[in-house]
Design goal:
Structural class: alpha/beta
Strand content: 15-25%
Distance between the termini: 26 Å
CATH topology: Glycerol-3-phosphate (1)-acyltransferase
Strand order of the largest sheet: 1-9-6-2-5-3-4
Shape: globular
Number of strands: 9
Number of domains: 1
Length: 228
């Protein structure tokens, strides 16, 4: 996507992606498994699982952190216009990440939820960066790890660095959520690192568990069509 994008065609591509997402959500059937009963939270997911936001409840009150890259601009517009998510983005200068972090913390403190691709925007893949820990620590909300999975052939893997998974057509999926992880406000750097590693391990554990969970969902027919 990045190679195709330039300042002249961002608007055109963003409108096209928005139209695709708007149509695709009617054909994406997601079973949400073990979603936690928490007031608001900070969803943590791998970059290549970012389309699991299809299954998130309460989209209008969920803030998704998106990079300031050109492809990020397309994603930001599309998920806002197609799904109604709020978007958190910093400025384009070097202080942008700090600005975006502050925006997310404020949104969480005011009762919204958030979503972060924890190994993004450019990897290394499947390594949790510490930003999600800092945000949870300063906002006081729990981190909820989430993974998704499908055996359908039309869950397409794009030729990007993370092999982004995108549903195309009628796809049955599972969103599997882990137990909330809390980051103590008075914890030191060593404790923060311990929780970061715990989150990383839990996301990888969900990736292993979800195969069996998908089988159970399949045989029990728990699919439901997604609603806005």
């Amino acid at each position: 996507m990045v190679r195709l994008l330039n300042l002249d065609n961002v608007d055109i591509i963003a409108r096209g992606v928005t139209a695709f997402f708007s149509l695709q959500q009617h054909f994406t059937r997601i079973a949400n498994i073990n979603h936690p009963n928490v007031k608001n939270c900070l969803y943590a997911l791998w970059h290549n699982h970012q389309c699991c936001v299809y299954g998130f409840p309460d989209k209008p009150n969920t803030n998704v952190m998106v990079s300031r890259s050109k492809d990020g601009e397309v994603v930001a517009r599309a998920i806002h216009d197609a799904f109604g998510f709020k978007i958190v983005r910093g400025s384009k200068d070097r202080k942008g990440a700090v600005e975006a972090t502050k925006q997310m913390i404020e949104a969480l403190k005011h009762g919204d939820s958030g979503a972060i691709m924890v190994d993004g925007p450019r990897g290394p893949q499947y390594v949790v960066k510490d930003g999600v820990i800092k945000i949870a620590k300063l906002s006081g909300v729990p981190i909820v790890p989430v993974a998704w999975y499908s055996t359908n052939f039309n869950l397409i893997k794009l030729p990007s660095w993370d092999r982004l998974e995108m549903p195309v057509g009628d796809v049955r999926l599972v969103n599997l959520y882990g137990e909330p992880i809390y980051v103590p406000a008075d914890g030191d750097d060593e404790n923060d690192e311990k929780i970061r590693l715990e989150l990383e391990a839990k996301l990888k554990e969900l990736d292993e568990q979800i195969v069996d969970v998908y089988e159970k969902v399949y045989w029990h027919g728990l699919w439901r069509r997604k609603q806005k």
